[in-house]
Structure formats: structure tokens, C-alpha cells
Amino acid sequence: MAGKEFDRPVRGKEFGAYEEFARAFLSGYTQVRPLPTDWARLLEPYLLFRDVFILDFVTTAAPVNADVASWGPRRIAGIVAPARRAGRHTALPGPARPGLARAT
User: Fold this and answer.
1) Which domain of life is it from (predicted)?
2) Fewer CB atoms inside 10 A, N or C side of the chain?
3) Is residue 48 scored above 70 in pLDDT?
4) How far apart are CA 76 and CA 56, in angstroms?
């Protein structure tokens, strides 16, 4: 993959763009140093931790930061929607924090 293809953020691109980016990133990374032997086992817990961290940040910052409030609900939806499709969650009761609008 040419480096210029990923100069712009991957979010908002067509379906599968992130997966393509991840493969290219891992390919480049492993040319410099090997991944730990158990990296695949650690990937899902890392991604879940990352998503929880992002959810906490957005729900804490959005009520007091207009910039985060402008993109936060979409970011939450981007985390929750795939989790719902994967069947990890059945229903969400509402916004995690009062005052944060539910993303549509």
C-alpha cells in the first residue's frame, strides 16, 4: 500500500476501509519488529478497553465541551452499532450521562 492512501482519516470511508488500513499497518509494523506471539488473543480485549475509554471520554466531555458534543454522539453510535450487530448487546437504556443526546 502506498503511504498517501492513508494520509486522510479512515473514518467515514467505504465499508472495509478500516480493515484494509489495519492490514497495511500490521504489514508495515511487522517489517520493523514482530508482533507478540499472542497478539491475536490480546486484540479484542484491547479494542473493548479502547471503546470503553472513548465512551467514557465522550459522555464526560460532551456536556461541557461543544466540540466533543458536535461529534461525540456519532462516535458513540459508531461503537454501539457494530456491537449490536455482533449481538454483544441487546438494548441500551439511553444516554450514559444526562444531557448527552442519543445519536440517531
Assistant:
1) Bacteria
2) C
3) yes
4) 10
State how far the Cα of 23 lies from the Cα of 65, in Å rounded to an integer: 34
Q: 34: which 3 cell numbers? A: 514482530
Q: What is the mean pLDDT of residues 63-75?
A: 92
CB within 8 Å of 18: residues ≥ 6 apart: 10, 11
DSSP assignment of the chain = --GGGGSS-STTSSTTHHHHHHHHHHHHHHHHSPPPTTHHHHHHHHHHHHHHHHHHHHHHHTTT-HHHHHHHHHHHHHHHHHHHHTTS-S---S-SSTTPPPP-
Whether 94 shows a pLDDT value over 70: the answer reads no
Task: Give the residue carrying C-alpha cell 454522539.
Answer: 73
- The pTM score is 0.55
Q: Where are the domains of the chain?
A: 1-35, 38-104
